[in-house]
Amino acid sequence: MRSSTGSPQVARKTWTLSTEALVLCICAYFIAVGNHSFWSSALADRSPGDTGTWRFGVGVFVLLVALHFIALALFATRRTTKPLLILLLVCTAFASYFMGKYSVFLDPTMLRNLLRTDVGEARDLLAWDMLTHLAWQATLPIWLVWRVRLRERGWRSATAWRLGTLALALGVATGAFLTVSQDLSSLMRSNKSMGYLITPGNYVYSLARVATADAVNATKQRVEVGTDAVAGPAWTDRSKPLLFILVVGETARAMNWGLNGYARQTTPELAALGVINFTDVGSCGTNTETSLPCMFSRIGRRDYDEDRIRGEESLLHVVSRAGFAVQWRDNQSGCKGVCEGLPMQKMAKTPDPSLCNGSECLDEILLKGLDAQLAGDQGKGNHLIVLHQMGSHGPAYHRRAPEAFRRYTPTCDTAELHKCSTQAVVNAYDNSIAYTDHVLGKAVRFLQSQSDRYDTALLYVSDHGESLGENNLFLHGMPYAIAPAQQTQVPMVMWLSPSFSDSRQIDLACLRTRATQRATHDNLFHTMLGLLDVQTRVYEPALDLVKGCRSPVN
């Protein structure tokens, strides 16, 4: 047969399936191919030669296929099935790639963090091997789905068939669960986060949770906190106003911090400045999206409630209410609502060619223009300036420091960490820590230069840590309950000018002793209020790290 143009017609190979059969096939494909992380975890302690292992594996496989079939069959019609399955195939391929490569769990917290990732951060996560993964895990099944011709049925027949298959799937799921219930229940109780390894159910559920929470929060007005906040008696008869810089670090972990006794002195500038180093500090979370709102909240990790934290004003609003000029200067992906309604400057929007490459800037950009800004203020009023660093954000650690700070070599000069030796990854990461040390040293020296006009002080704390290959884990974002110390232990330092410590009557020897004891992000809110002498009912003295080292009159 020839077409109207005279060229032979090539018959396209197609397959005719019912909607239910196609959905079932793709569900089986998801569970078998897209869940390597789940199967590796679920079967980790089981022998492949044990009959019980196979019984457990088959039972769980059938259960998960049936459950996913039930969920998809509720939405799959003859018109929506193919677009829906193609979308899920693409998303599942991406999900399985990142879960397998970086050992992440796609819980609501991680999904929110991914959704808030900016273009620069997302670019770092892209790698050439992802194309290979997508090609075999998404492209081929999408081509097959596209070639399938769905069988047509009248609406009565289609409804009866759908109800029958749903009932059958429910029965199969029940039977499979009863077969493996004892082993599966025990496994899930001991590892409650394992459910977030099952794709596509994990990201669909998490996305629904995030979307629902965001929709609810969007209609709510933030709860005001510290409405009674006022500047305390320490501000009476002061000769100079206060200039306080609070630096929020990114992805710095405590064990690679030179001041904490790390084998490498990655913090020589801070060591020379005699800062007060807190040696045992725990984070609120394992990713920025969680930690940032939490560490600036009065609620914190001790009474963790994400909805309450996101629905209330932060430390910065309380300090602003007490009369401070508060500003957020950002070299990252925003303040995550912490500075909502307050002055915020994205430093990449005023780039410096010596510090920026067109897509991102080195952290020294955070200090650019501060002197001119303060000169215009003419020394009037108290300032709290927050600097949000790019810090050691991975996986492209080699981009987080200039060439002059390439102290430890060889380095991993790619975001594909698995292509590098562990030592090369650590070298690149340590160089980024050394650069953070330089930025902090430069910030302290800037404050020293302002000492004739202001009492000055600085506090630095990282938002969370990082895994660098320990237990085959990379990056961060593990569920907090099972996160390793590498992701939850962070550095924190404090520098107080002599005039500041004298005016607040702070015993520095006492404070150095306190710095050797346990602290967490929960202390930040109340320590800052104490240091700034902001008086409010929400201040809790027991959580103020400096309270015990100040004169009783303060």
Could you walk me through the main structural features you see in this protein, from its secondary elements to its overall organization?
With 554 residues, the protein is α/β, with parallel strands linked by helices. 45% of the residues lie in helices and 11% in strands. The chain has 19 helices and 14 strands. It has helices at residues 19-33, 36-42, 51-73, 81-102, 108-115, 119-125, 128-147, 155-190, 201-218, 268-273, 288-295, 306-311, 315-321, 370-377, 422-449, 485-488, 498-503, 508-514, 522-532; strands at 15-17, 148-150, 230-231, 242-249, 276-282, 325-330, 344-346, 383-388, 455-462, 467-468, 474-475, 489-496, 519-520, 534-535. The strands form 4 sheets. It has an 8-stranded mixed beta sheet with strand order 7-6-8-4-9-12-5-13, sandwiched between helices. Strand 10 and strand 11 (474-475) form a beta hairpin. Helix 1 packs parallel to helix 4 (81-102). The longest helix is centred in the first third of the chain and has 36 residues, at 155-190. The radius of gyration is 28 Å and the shape is elongated. It starts with 14 loop residues before the first strand and ends in a 19-residue tail after the last strand.
